[in-house]
Structures are given as structure tokens and as C-alpha cells.
Amino acid sequence: MKQNGKAVYDAKSRQMAEQMILAEKRQLARQSEEDCDCKDGMFPSQPTPSRRGLLFAAGSVVGVIGAASIARAEPRKAPPGATFYDVAEDPTKEQGRPVAGDGGYGTRSQFETEVRVRYPTPNENTSWSFTPLSAMLGNTTPSGLHFERHHAGIPTIDPARHNLLIHGMVKNPLTFSVADIKRMPSVTRKHFIECSGNGLTEWNKPTLKTVQATHGLLSTSEWTGVQFSTFARETGLSDGAAWVLAEGADAAVMTRSIPLEKMLKDALIVYGQNGEAIRPEQGYPLRLLLPGYEGNTHIKWLRRLQVSDKPFMTREETSKYTDLLGNGKARMFSLDMDAKSVITFPSGDMKLPGPGFYNIGGLAWSGRGRIQSVDVSTDAGKTWYPARLESTPEPMCTVRFSFPWMWDGKVAVLQSRCMDETGYVQPTLKQLIAIRGDNGPFGSVYHLNAIQSWAINEAGEVSNVHA
Amino acid sequence: MSMLRTIFSCMIGLCVSTGVNAQSIVDHFGFGKTPAPQDMAKYFAIPPSGAGLPPGSGTGKAGADIFAENCAACHGDKLQGNPAVGLGGDRLIGGRGSLASKTPIKTVESYWPYSTTLFDYVKRAMPFNAPGSLTDDQVYSLVAYILSEAKIVKPTDVMNADTLPKVVMPNRDGFIPDSRPELELYR
């Protein structure tokens, strides 16, 4: 992993990581031009007149570069997902906008600028984008900020022409239209999805600055759909059935083999996300939802389920999404996401304006059940204190935690550590590497769930460190 | 159907039973269509047994030109990969013996455990700018070309539904089942 103290990546990974560092730097520079000493997001109640210049914030690297060079020339432009309206000097002295003047579908405030940021893979179609975790409120990720990972871009699919075929080792193969599926009994459940590559730049050394880039391949939604078991009862299952191949209708025709046991236990074929139809980037019109499993198995644009006795050993479950250990052997079908937590406030590249009270906050989640407890340390893990859980933990769902902290102005290292209901305790990076070997950055790149450390210096500046 | 019948019976006043009526338990919804064979034809997924491999064949020799025309822009003339912006094709060969080192190189040659996966993936999703556009003979030829450049088969070896599943990949035994949860991490 390290040679002469330097990280060794292959050329492609190194180039991508370096570009991400630059992209992040550009975005942060653009923000700090506009912000007061207390960085954006620190104190949402403070007036932010300077934000207007940020209103063209863009998600792609190209956008970030473009935005930086155009500077603040176009104040009337709203950020993605918003519409620009003139701001009244005193909103009590003139009429507001007419009801339904937005065409019947609302937008977010023009003052809210958070966007997903794309990781600068060479190819924009096979890439990923991060949820801005430090700006998230509550447990649910807004659908428009849900992280993305696509292998061949986002297809536009007409639901009237989309079907789900269930065949293979079933008694009665059937094709269901989207309308058929919506007629079936449904369930609504809140679950996180996390990409197993979340944090892949962070194995070797602290590489990216913000929690968006280190942990932003995590999002939580309320999902609505039909249990796989409901479909299985319709089609029947043949003796010996043990796996199910799920296939998407994108240009990657993405496929993964899923254990039948998991499919019958809690797999959902979802069409709803946060109360409306699932977003195109999340698989419109149908997505497979596998609570607690690594994100790539939640096949989007789902068109086919083939029941079989053995896994198919597709590209995504052999050459990708397998975990190469130090001994040269690779784990396959490493499907569960281990318990993990991260402090989102304060987090990387924020600045505490001075000593005083701070309500440390963050998210914890586990692919194996409910979060049982979260501890917080302000001294790099020497002393731990129980955090307060801000909502009732649900299985395979994020929970928000907080810890009241009086900062004395001295150097501190903030950490959070969670335990799930199975008794699994979130490990340190050192513990993970001791088990899996140390060829991390390009060997076992996936499933990094180690404790995250944020260092705070005497000036109040927060940075990503390995402690 | 049975539920509808029950509801209808109740509406016309014939529903006299109390509690759960056996007829109100739905055993099947009655929708979903039996797929026609011609609708199934476009679907495939090739497991290591080779089940479902289509007719056709190809050799590495025949695959060289097809590779140059359809694949080399992203994967390189020498199958070395191309990280250029807009391309980003993976390296396909080399790296044998590197997996346990500090600089593991994961390629078809060094890492992929099954030759059938290569056929499945090329037919499924390649070339990137025209996915699924190759004939089965072309796919067999490309697979044969990559495997022969990787020195796994000879350039003259014919790859078809019978021979391809028999190709033993160098890293065939390099995978283990998930050994998590790691018990050291329980309290």
C-alpha cells in the first residue's frame, strides 16, 4: 500500500483521485470566496447575502470549472432544482406568488445551493456522485440529492413499455407490467443504500476534505413497492432454486446474482421513493431494493429476475465488487454493509468560529439490523461518551445522533463509533487492515467502514485525518 | 377473481357468513402474462457451466481486427487500457502473480475467474458506444482474442459453446466466500 511513505495507486486510480482532490478544492474555493469566517452550513440562521453568487452551483466537474471562471456574472440564475424569484425588500408589504404558479410542482428555495458532486472518473457515463451529507437534515435524503452510481448513464424509460419478467426455476414464468405491479399489495419502508465503494480514497491516507466526498455514497429514502415473496407466490419456485439474477434495462444491462434467501426475506421491487415515483437516476420505473446490501446489487431499471440454482458469476460479482485481501485471495458476494457512523457536523473543511457550545451531529447505520448505540469521542478515541439518538432506530436505516460539546479552543479529534443490534462494533482503520491486509487502495477498495476522525486545530479549522 | 366474486356476492345481498370467508382469501392475483418464447429470445445470462451460450464460434486470429475496430480506442492497442477523459477503458491483460503484492493489477488475465463472464459481458454491454451490437461470432472472436493475448488460449483455438466453458482462467481458485462478519469486531 505504501512505498517510501507514498501511496501507490495504479495510473487510472491515481489520476481519478487527483482530479477529485482538485475538483473538491475548486468547489471549496468558490464557496469560501462568498462565505464569512464561519463556513457555509455552520450557522444556517445567519444571513447569507453573499450566497447569491453561488446560485449557479453545478454538480459536474465541468460545471464547477465553468462556474469558477464565469464568477458572479449571473445573479438571476437559480441553483439546480430551484427557480429564481425576485426577493421583496419586505415580504409583508407586497403580494407573494400566485398559488400553483409553479405549474403544480414545487421547487426548493433559490437560497439552497447544495448539489451532488460527481467523482471525476474519465467517463461521465460510468461514474458516481456524492450526497452532500453535511447539509442533510433528518434521516431522509431528498430524492434529488440521492447519491448516484451508474455503469452506462441514466436511461429514459417509458413505464408503459417497461415490464418485469420473472422466469427460470419457477413453476409459472410471468411478465408483469408496471401497472400490474402497482395493483399488488405493497409495503413502505425506510432504508439506506450505501455504495460499497464509499470512502475508497481513504484507505491509505486522508485524501478528500469533506464528508460529502469521504462518505457521500450513502442516502436514505422511504421506498414503496412489492415484496419479492409476493411475486414468488404468483410464479411458484422450483425445487433447488437458490439464487436470483437481477437485470437492469440500462446500456450496461447490469446484472447481479442474489441469494434466494435474501430475496424471500426482505427484497422489494420498488416504484416509489419518498412519496412519489422513484427518480430516473434511482431506477425509474422499477428498482430492486435489498435492505442492507451493497448498493450495486439494488438493480435499477429492473426488467428481469431469473431464478437459478447457482450464481451466474457476472462481471459485477467477479471482476468488480470483490474484495482482494492481502494474501491475494478475494472475497466474493460480500453483500452486507457493515455498521458505520460518521460525524457530519462539524466535519471536514468547516471552521468553528470560536470556543463555545457545539452540538456534534452525525449519522449511523448498519446493513445487519438496527443501530443499538453510538459513542462520540473528542480526544481521538481515548474517551468515549454515549451520544443521543435523535430518532427511533429502524432496521437497515440511518439514525441521526448528536452529542453536546463545549469546545475549549484547544486541539481536538472528533470520532463516532456505533454498535448495531447484532453486537458488531464499528472498527478502527487499523483493525480493518489487520484483518484484510494492507493492499487497500487498489486491493480491497470496498467496504471501508472504519471510524472517521476529524481534527480541529486551535483556529477551529476542521480537517480529515487518520488518528 | 375470487375476491371480486365475494365482493360482488356481498353487494347483491347474498353474503350471509360472518368472519373470514374462504373465498375471500386470494390465492393468485390473476395478472401478469405468460411470456411468449419470442419475447424471451433477447434475454441471456451465461453462468460458468456455459448454459445458454449461443451457436457460433471465433478465434483470436479473427478477433484481432474486430478488437482494433471496436475496442482498441478505449482498451488500447495492446489491451493496456486507456484512462483518457471520455474513455476510461480497463486494462485487459497482464498482472499475473501481482494479486498478493503491494501493487495488485486486476485484469481479465490476472483476476477474472471465469471465461464465460467475458462472453456474457462483451455480448451484454460492449462496445461502450454501441452496446449489444456485435454478432455472436464477433463476440466469440473477441473473447478468443483477449484470452489469446493473455496467453490463456492459442490464437488458433476455436471458442464456441463447447470449448469456452472449458477454458481454465489463471485466477480460477482465487476467490473465497465472504468471511464477514469479522468476529473480532463483536463485543
Shape of chain B: globular
Helix content of chain A: 10-25%
CATH architecture tag of the largest domain in chain B: Orthogonal Bundle
> How would you characterize the largest beta sheet of chain A?
5 strands, mixed
Radius of gyration of chain B: 26 Å
Classify the oligomer. heterodimer
CATH fold naming of the largest domain in chain B: Cytochrome Bc1 Complex, Chain D, domain 2
- Given this structure, which CATH class of the largest domain in chain A is correct? Alpha Beta
- CA-to-CA gap between the ends of chain A? 18 Å
Could you spell the SSE succession of chain B in H and E letters? HHEHHHHEE
List the domain count of chain B as a whole number.
2
Broad shape of chain A: globular
User: Whole-number average pLDDT of chain A?
Assistant: 89
Number of domains as seen in the coordinates of chain A: 2
What would you report as the Rg of chain A, rounded to the nearest angstrom?
Answer: 23 Å
SSE-based structural type of chain A: alpha+beta
What is the CATH superfamily label of the largest domain in chain A? Answer: Oxidoreductase, molybdopterin-binding domain
Structure explained in plain terms:
The complex is a heterodimer of chains A (467) and B (187). Chain A is built from eight helices and 26 strands. The model of chain A is unreliable at 1-8 and 36-73 (pLDDT under 50). Chain A is globular, with a radius of gyration of 23 Å. Chain A has two domains: 2-91 and 104-129, no CATH class; 130-467, Sulfite Oxidase, Chain A, domain 2 (Alpha-Beta Complex), CATH 3.90.420. Chain A has helices at 11-34, 61-70, 178-183, 211-215, 228-235, 260-266, 315-318, 429-436, and strands at residues 2-3, 6-7, 117-118, 127-130, 148-150, 163-168, 174-177, 187-194, 218-227, 243-248, 255-259, 268-273, 276-277, 287-289, 302-308, 323-324, 330-332, 340-345, 356-365, 371-377, 385-386, 388-389, 399-407, 412-420, 453-456, 462-465. In chain A, helix 1 (11-34) runs parallel beside helix 2. With 187 residues, chain B is mainly α. Chain B folds into two domains: 2-32, no CATH class; 40-166, Cytochrome c-like domain (Cytochrome Bc1 Complex, Chain D, domain 2), CATH 1.10.760. Chain B has six helices and three strands, in the order H-H-E-H-H-H-H-E-E. A two-stranded antiparallel sheet of chain B has the order 1-2. In chain B, helix 5 (115-125) packs across helix 6 (136-149). Chains A and B meet through strand 1, helix 1, strand 7, helix 5 and strand 15 of A and helix 5 and strand 3 of B.
